[in-house]
Structure formats: structure tokens, C-alpha cells
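Lab meeting minutes (informal)
Scribe: AK
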Amino acid sequence: MAVFEYKAFSASGKAEAGIVDAESAKAARAKLRKQGVFPTELVEEQAGKAGKRTQAAARSPVEVDVKKLLGGGRVSTQDLAIMTRQLATLLAAGISMIEALNALADQVENETLKLSISSIKEKVNEGSGLAQAMRGYPKIFSDLYCNMIAAGEASGALDIVLKRLSEFLETQVELNNKLLTAMVYPAIMGVVGLGVVGFLMAVVVPKVTKIFTDMKVALPLVTRILIAISNFVAGWWWAIGISMGLGIWLFIRWKRSETGKASWDRISLKLPVFGKLQRMVAVARFARTLSTLLASGVSLLQALTIVKAIVSNSVIQAAIEDTRVSVQEGESIAEPLRRSKQFPPIMTHMIAIGEKTGELEGMLEKVADAYESEVKTRITLMTAFLEPAMILVSGLVVGFIAISILLPMLRMNQLVHR
């Protein structure tokens, strides 16, 4: 089914514009006429500006698979969080679902999200449930999102669920941004540092050391080492580049394979500093998501299935799956989590208390708050430590180059003054 943007006149002669979905342009025109709207211009939405230019030239819309566009277009978590909060606010204010979706379609700037909301509005207008309509766009609205919406519709507290969902998405955005910032800074510093050192070794150092070799003086060991490294970099820079590129490609290919991913996930959890941080991020995400789902009315078994899908580490995924099976067999959630040894003892202890007191959702939320706070603290400390550490390493490299060049110059100066 395609989505068309139209300009039209109503029966009273008032100009209006909007979006309608239909199998074809002819069907869209017929649908609009039934609603008392008479289109003067009709353009298939996903063709965008190119479609408008085509219409101006040929007056025939381009047939494109809108489902493919909406399934593959990029919608950031931030965009989704803002849209969810706006929808929660509109519904809480007593605005009907159709009017709220119509307002969102006008408000949202992301083109893919705008198209999906317009299509969802049409489906809801035809009698479909909101969650059911959203399931048609799995790359925009995840299983977690749709299940929470469905639970909200069933309980009659959709505005509350949407507010909780927007808070969950905003928390994920904040945590992801913090992680991204922590990774980008050292990566940029490392690339710039390697580039500067490579330039010095391949271009600057050979010109300076050529003076020493031409004078045929005995060179200190550090200078001979510098010359050997410089000659290697200058002569084999292309091989170094190819080897690094090939090594990265092979590593990525291995990590994407089933055995490679399983091996890397085990190794990454044991890495110093970063392994513990990765585990804490996974634990915080597990607790936050499970708490949000349970508080929204999703069953525990279904919630565990959804949580398993959003945790990227296969080792922790396996522990969650074992827990789900154990819960299905009648066991509590805390015991299988403890047996897996993938979750901190304090977390499993708090979950056990939450189960006994009937406050599992609240306890999981406290666990998530604690670990998210610790993750942010560790990231801040790591970032603060990395900056001086990288400056120190750069200083040592530059110092090595400077000493290697200055020592023979001092020796030559002494020979001249004798």
C-alpha cells in the first residue's frame, strides 16, 4: 500500500492538504472523494522532491514500495522518544487518538517517522489497534515498544504507559550518548596521534637523519633504532596500511560469525576495565527494560523474551534464556540469574527481595538506577584518565624522536669544538 500527499478542496471550497494511503493513485482519489475531498494534486509521498519534479514533468506518480521505505528508513531513538512523549501528553490532555496522531504527523520532522505515523493514523481510523498498526513498521517500533503499547491499550492506561516508555527511551539515549562520547574522544586522539607520528617517521625523520649518515659518524643506539623504524615506515607504509585494513576486516568478519561472536562476547566480558563496564551496561539495560515492561502490564515470560533480544552480548543472552525457561517451569527469577554467575550478587539479592515483597518492578528500577549511575561515573573517570594518558604516550614518542635526533647533533658539536 502506498502513501500519497495531496492538495485538494473540500465540499465547501476550502483548500486543504494531507496524506492518504491507498493501493494506487486512482484508489487514493476515490477514497478522498468518498470523504468529500476533491484532490487537485496527488504525489506519492516517498518519491519526495524527485516525485514532485516527475509530476511537474509527466503528471504520473512513481510507484515505489512504501513498506520498504518505512521499514528501512532511519529513525533515531531520540526522535522516537520525543514522539512518544508528545503522544503521551496529547492523550493525557484528553485529545482523541486520531487527532493526536494527526497532530504528530504535522509536528514530526523525520520524514520516515512522519510517513509511518500518517499510515498508522489511517489504520487506526479504520478500526485497527495502535499496537497492531505499529507492528507493520518493525524497524521503527520494536517488539518492546509494541508490547508496551498493547499492554497500555488493554489496561486503559495508554497515556501512562507512553510516558513511562518515553522516559525509558530517554534514559537509553542518555546512556548511549555517554558511551559514544567516551569512545569517540580516544579514537580521534589515537588516529590523530598515529597520523602525526607516521608523518614524522615517513617524511621528517628521514631528511634529518640523512645528514648524520652522510657525515658517517658513529650514531647512538636510540638514533639507529629511530632510523630503522623510519626506513621501515617510509619504505613499507603501503604494506602497513594494507595489513591494518586486512586485519580489521578479518576481525570484523570473524566477530560477525556465530562462533566468533560467541568467543568475542566471552573475551570482552573478561577485559580489564572495559569488561566490567560492558557487564554493568548490560545489567542496567536488563533491569531497566524488565522493570518498564512489567510495570506496563507485560507478562514476565514475554518480558524476558523481549529483554533477551535487546541485550547484545550472547553470554548474557544465554543466561536470560535459561532464566526464562526456569521461570516457565515454576522457578523464581532470582535463583537462575544467580546460578548463571553473569549478574552481580547484589542484583540477584535485590531481585529476590522484590519477588518476596511483591515489588519486583520497583526493585529492578532501583537496580537500574544504581548501575546506570555507576556506569556514568566510570565513564567520566575513564575519560578523565584517558586524556593525560594519551598525552603522556604522545610525549614519550615525541621525546624519543627528539632525543634520537639531538644526541648525534650534540656529539657532532663536541667534535667540532675539539
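Next up, CB showed the second protein from the same session:
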Amino acid sequence: MEITIPKKDETVTKESFKFKLNKEKLRATELRDGHYLLRSNLSAGDPSVLWERYVQLTEIEAAFRVLKSELEIRPIYHRIEARVEAHIMVAFLAYCLMVTLNKRLEALAPGLKGKAVLEKLSTIQMLDVLIPTTDGRTLEMRRYTQPEKDQKLILEKLNMKLPKQPPPRIRAQHLAAQVVNL
């Protein structure tokens, strides 16, 4: 672009202030618009393969962000190889479940996000109520807390129902003590 501006004491007029677009430079700039430049240490091969690998990299980075932020999985340092593999598997399964939940929410309850739903539903808890009987046995009732109104709405939108409350069981006293000590 070429610009002519008025001198210090000169008034601004059509003659004292002018500008002209350099159309050739503008066309060259527009040709570069929307292009993405990737720099890599890969020297040969099809550029589309490089692009696919880059897209995979961004997807992997997004998955790790989900693991760290939404699932709140932090590094845990294991010394035994089997535990490292187990930890990776659990983290991967959690990620798969989160992706599935988000896809389901996208279709059935747009606007809701998996993290928010998990936080809202996290107050539904399962607990064991143990009541000793007069004959030395223990009445065991496994119960979950009843969902609040907004939790019921979320479950309804996801077409999910909580299971029926399990029936009570009576245990001998020595077995009940083991359950409490676990």
C-alpha cells in the first residue's frame, strides 16, 4: 500500500491525503491465506502423510488434556511394570467412557458436557447400612442415595435409569465383622 499524508501544517484534503493498494502484493497475500505451514524432520514422503500424523498428534494432545483436566488423572509413579500397564489401561478406559458420554450428550442433551454431568451425578452414593439383630446376626442393606430433581433430569435425558435397590440380606455376625473391617 502506498500512502501520502499531509505535511505538518497542511490541511487534510483529497490531494494531501492519498492511498493506493498494491494489487499484486494483495493477490500474493491472498494466495497464502488459509494455508498451514508444518515444519518437520521428515525429509521424504507424501505431504498428506505428514498432515495425517500432525492431526493424530493434535488428537492425542487433546486426549491427554481430557485426562488431566476433565478426568483429573494426575501422574502416579509406579515401580512395577504390571502396575504401570494397569494404570494406563484404567486411564484409557476412563478416557473412552468420557468420549462416549460426550458423544451421547451431544446427541441427547446438547449443551451438557461430560465433566459437568459427572460432577452433578457424583453426589449419588452407594452405601451399606448394617443393622445388628437381637439374635447376633446382621441385617445388611446396600442402598444408593436418591437422585435430586436435576440429577433425575440428566438421567432421563440420557435414557438411563438407576438399578432397583437390592434386597436386604441377613448375615451371620462373624461375616458382618469382616465386611466392616474391609
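CB comment: The mean pLDDT is 84.
No objections, moving on.
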